[in-house]
Design a protein that fits this description.
The complex is a heterodimer of chains A (339) and B (272). Chain A has 339 residues and is mostly helical. Chain A is built from 15 helices and two strands. Chain A has a single domain, classed as ABC transporter involved in vitamin B12 uptake, BtuC (Orthogonal Bundle), CATH 1.10.3470.10. Chain A has a two-stranded antiparallel sheet with strand order 1-2. The two termini of chain A are 24 Å apart. Chain B has 272 residues and is α/β, with parallel strands linked by helices. Chain B has 13 helices and ten strands. Chain B has a five-stranded parallel β-sheet with strand order 3-2-1-4-5, sandwiched between helices. In chain B, strands 6, 7, 8, 9 and 10 form a five-stranded mixed β-sheet that branches. In chain B, helix 6 packs antiparallel against helix 7 and helix 7 packs parallel to helix 13. The longest helix of chain B has 22 residues. The relative contact order of chain B is 0.11. Classes of the chains: A mainly alpha (339), B alpha/beta (272). The interface between A and B is large, with 42 and 40 residues.
């Protein structure tokens, strides 16, 4: 029984990996100029400084790598948070992390930090904003040294509202140019030209994936509820705290580099739970791989569907993710598993 | 018969002067920085009683602030008892309706698409401030200036130009905007003629291979963007070293004078 389960998981993993690789190749080939699949490998290896090499290496590849990292990170954060709260509606942005990051960026734009210090100040301020929000949510949810997860959720939602009101306030009192910058930043984009930021995204997302595997037992035990997990000898408080920090780090990183890309952290974990089941051993890595592939696919659509114009990637993630998820739920009908 | 003619002319003159007097406004509110800027250029700022919080001159002068980038404080506008409120494309139609319901005269200017339209709007604003003659003088002088700048452009193939208004996402000027007219007046061709909204892919810019890239921003962000474009060695603009920044304050809300300033700057940087 157990052995067949592992074989099944292995097969799923290979499938997801193959889908992700195929998406990457599709994304490399598609764009303003369609590069034939057979030529991509040669172009990248020969390194002739021609147009196709520049487009592949300087534009499409960095974008794909960032997409894989951000999609993987958001889905991972979603899985972990849904695990901690045992609530399928929780997503990385529910806890006010994106609101905090956006507030940080809005401050930086209004203070002109991107003009006086450098454009890297936007992701840095976004990350600081996200961390402050997380810290606030955490401090306010701890009572007598114990975390109250339901309180935490409510406080997170409230902090999120406060942050969006504060952003509205900033937008209402700032200049037209700043308003334009804030709106565009919030839309989200994977068009990042700073290669150091892309490296940060890759390292943070892979590290957090590895670290999250240390918490496999607590995550699986928490499925039974906090009390039962405690009876099984799990230090639930510490695990929840550390998992919360990991998911906050992941979300803060994504939001500060790529802006707000919705739905991925909500839909991919649910999707994966329907396909591979609720065991976190397979759920974490599957969500990571599928989330990455999903964003890369959506980004390819976003930059080609109305070419030479480009759509914000969040538009496509929302439409494709939302519609396909509803379609699957309807198809599963009454026999659908509870998620 | 001759007397009759005299009477008719006299009546007509009186009517016209009354009409032009009635048109003139003494308490003006401007809901757009470009309009405020034109009022200052016309030296009619004493008639300006309110403006937005991003009208640089008005804020500096301590004028009443009646609007921000999103909303207009209708109550404050009403209390200032303006004879005329000037608005531009960004003001919400519901706000304009609300002002009209309060019997406030509102004149909306759509976003100017060409230099000629900027001049027309300038003269219209001048006609409400009693500075029409001054406005016409300014426009005539600037048009002569523009002509002489255009004459200095070397004959030959027109350079393809990419004008960058924002970096993330990459944002450019589309046809039928005064930004596009900067390029036309400077003797160039906008590479973004086939796009409808401003967001453009970096790939598309590289494929169209502009001869020059104009970045409308200042400071470090402008320098960073220059460095990004220079990385693409195949780009003609990078090879020719024609990647430069222009002043966003002058180019984003131009009047008849600053428009020509920007074209002059462009011509100097493009053909030197």
């Amino acid at each position: 029984m157990s052995r067949s389960k592992y074989i099944k998981w292995g097969l799923w993993l290979i499938t997801f990996l193959l889908i992700a690789v195929m998406t990457v190749i599709f994304s490399l080939a598609k764009g303003e100029i369609d590069i034939p699949l057979s030529k991509i490998y040669n172009i990248l290896i020969n390194r002739n400084n021609d147009l196709e090499y520049t487009v592949l290496k300087e534009i499409r590849l960095p974008r794909i790598i960032l997409g894989l990292s951000v999609g993987g990170a958001l889905s991972l954060a979603g899985v972990i948070l849904q695990g901690i709260y045992r609530n399928p509606l929780v997503e990385p942005y529910t806890l006010g992390i994106s609101g905090g990051a956006a507030l940080g960026v809005a401050f930086a734009i209004v203070a002109g930090l991107n003009f006086s210090v450098g454009s890297f100040m936007l992701p840095v301020s976004g990350f600081i904003g996200a961390l402050i929000t997380v810290f606030l949510v955490y401090i306010l949810s701890v009572r007598k040294g114990k975390i109250h997860t339901q309180n935490m959720l409510l406080i997170g939602v409230m902090v999120s509202f406060i942050a969006s009101s504060a952003i509205m306030f900033i937008m209402a009192t700032t200049t037209n140019e700043n308003l334009h910058n804030i709106v565009f930043w919030v839309m989200g984009s994977l068009d990042e030209t700073n290669k150091d930021l892309i490296k940060v995204a890759v390292i943070v997302s892979i590290l957090c994936l590895l670290i999250s595997y240390i918490f496999i037992d607590p995550l699986n035990a928490l499925r039974l509820g906090e009390d039962k997990a405690r009876h099984l000898g799990i230090n639930t408080d510490l695990s929840i705290k550390l998992l919360f920090i990991i998911s906050s780090l992941l979300t803060g990183m994504c939001v500060s580099i790529a802006g707000v890309i919705g739905f991925v952290g909500l839909i991919i974990p649910q999707f994966m739970r329907l396909i591979v089941g609720s065991d976190f051993r397979i759920l974490l890595i599957s969500s990571f791989l599928t989330g990455g592939g999903f964003i890369v696919f959506c980004d390819t659509i976003a930059r080609t569907i109305v070419a030479p114009n480009e759509l914000p990637v969040g538009v496509i993630t929302g439409i494709i993710g939302g519609i396909s998820f509803i379609a699957i739920l309807i198809n599963l009908g009454k026999n659908t598993r509870h998620i | 018969m001759a007397r009759n003619k005299k009477n008719i002319i006299l009546t007509l003159l009186i009517f016209l002067s009354i009409n032009s007097y009635a048109k003139e406004a003494n308490r003006i509110i401007s809901l757009a920085p470009s309009i405020t800027n034109m009022i200052y250029l016309l030296k009619a700022q004493d008639k300006l009683v309110g403006c937005t919080n991003y009208c640089l001159e008005g804020v500096k002068d301590g004028k009443n602030i009646v609007a921000n980038a999103i909303d207009v404080n209708i109550e404050k506008v009403f209390l200032l008892k303006p004879d005329m409120v000037f608005t531009a494309g960004l003001t919400k139609p519901s706000t304009i309706e609300a002002l009209k319901k309060l019997n406030i005269k509102v004149l909306s200017f759509p976003s100017a698409k060409t230099y000629a339209e900027i001049c027309e709007q300038f003269i219209t604003i001048a006609s409400y401030t009693g500075r029409e003659q001054l406005a016409k003088k300014i426009v005539e002088y600037q048009k002569r200036r523009l002509d002489s700048i255009k004459k200095s452009i070397p004959k030959g193939k027109k350079p393809k130009i990419f004008i960058e208004l924002g970096a993330k996402p990459l944002f450019t000027a589309v046809p039928n905007t005064f930004m596009d007219d900067f390029i036309t007046q400077a003797g160039g061709i906008n590479i973004a003629t086939d796009i409808s909204t401003g967001i453009i892919t970096r790939e598309n810019v590289i494929l169209k291979d502009p001869d020059a890239i104009v970045i409308v921003t200042m400071g470090i962000v402008g320098e960073e963007e220059k460095a990004v474009w220079k990385r693409y060695k195949q780009l003609s603009a990078a090879r020719k070293g024609k990647i430069f920044t222009v002043d966003p304050y002058k180019s984003c809300g131009p009047n008849p004078v600053t428009f020509v300033d920007v074209v002059e700057e462009l011509v100097t940087k493009l053909y030197k």
